[in-house]
């Protein structure tokens, strides 16, 4: 997968809003809340241009009944995809470029709290957000075709931030 890190785009929030409405219709009454997470949710920083939606649901196993609906929206169901208790979906556009990730968890789970705490910390601490942005740019240039290397390169920063958030 190509690693592309781009300047903040003011349309990312509206793209999140549009997509969240469509996904909410598919997941129905099981949805408790939908949050914009990831770097596209943090103002003024560079990011991979992929909109991350975090969806809290009452019953995580009921999400499995919505796979066909998610596929109709263009999503690929990935199961837990490395995080126990998650239902993960990814979406590409017609050219094969990744556009959205949907991370679905049981409401109030520790994964929900972790993702929201990181986002909220970065928004409240713009100087740390800029350090993160600079790191992402460097990693994007160093690992332009290695998403694993890119992600591994962010781990140290993310782990330090988790300690500050806690």
UniProtKB/TrEMBL annotation:
Domain of life: Bacteria
Protein name: GrpB family protein
InterPro entries recorded: GrpB/CoaE, NT_sf
Organism: Nostoc edaphicum CCNP1411
Pfam families: GrpB
